[in-house]
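Quick one, tokens below:
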């Protein structure tokens, strides 16, 4: 979360594929859409929702606690928005306060995951959906956000268990979406263009973290 909560992401942006399909329909009139495109588009029809399994998590071992619907946007990633980035945050508060904030519709921001100091992982938004966490619409649409319990000016908050659990989580996300394990694709909130946040702060050990992610990336899940 850093020093300030992120601004609301806004209404759903129409994906490039949807724009192309829309243009095709307008030009061809009764042209028949490809079967796989129809399969992807049927749920976008007003009143139709894509099936979701309540309480399902994307990372084995995570506990599900749902964020407020006001703090994320429904999507079908990576089909409509490709995922090529993980963004690291620090909560600037306790784990419980972060969960409470993300469940509050007035907060207007949330990450997909929160990692506690003891290594426990909570998922609050599905990876296929767009979380309002980066303060930048493009980065929100293409990233998975991970919060870490603590304060940026307290190095003692950044525990070994937290680093290790977060690294395993990030490694699995990178494997799932074929994201390169490097500092161009695993970044801090402070590195997002246009942000006024400082997290994960000067005490976040990037060398250690990236070493752990690379190790976890080569270890069978």
């Amino acid at each position: 979360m850093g020093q300030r909560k992120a601004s609301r992401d806004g209404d759903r942006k129409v994906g490039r594929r949807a724009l192309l399909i829309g243009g095709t329909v307008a030009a061809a009139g009764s042209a028949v859409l490809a079967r796989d495109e129809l399969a992807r588009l049927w749920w976008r029809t007003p009143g139709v929702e894509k099936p979701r399994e309540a309480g399902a998590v994307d990372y084995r071992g995570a506990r599900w606690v749902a964020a407020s619907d006001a703090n994320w946007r429904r999507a079908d990633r990576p089909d409509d928005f490709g995922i090529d980035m993980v963004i690291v945050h620090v909560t600037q508060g306790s784990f419980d306060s972060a969960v409470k904030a993300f469940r509050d519709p007035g907060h207007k921001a949330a990450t997909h995951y929160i990692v506690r100091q003891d290594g426990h992982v909570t998922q609050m938004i599905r990876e296929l959906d767009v979380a309002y966490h980066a303060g930048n619409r493009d980065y929100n649409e293409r990233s998975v956000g991970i919060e870490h319990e603590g304060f940026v000016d307290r190095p003692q908050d950044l525990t070994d268990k937290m680093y290790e659990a977060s690294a395993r989580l990030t490694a699995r996300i990178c494997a799932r979406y074929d994201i390169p394990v490097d500092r161009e694709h695993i970044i801090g909130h402070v590195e997002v263009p246009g942000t006024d946040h400082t997290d994960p702060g000067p005490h976040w050990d990037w060398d250690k973290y990236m070493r752990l992610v690379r190790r976890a990336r080569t270890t069978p899940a």
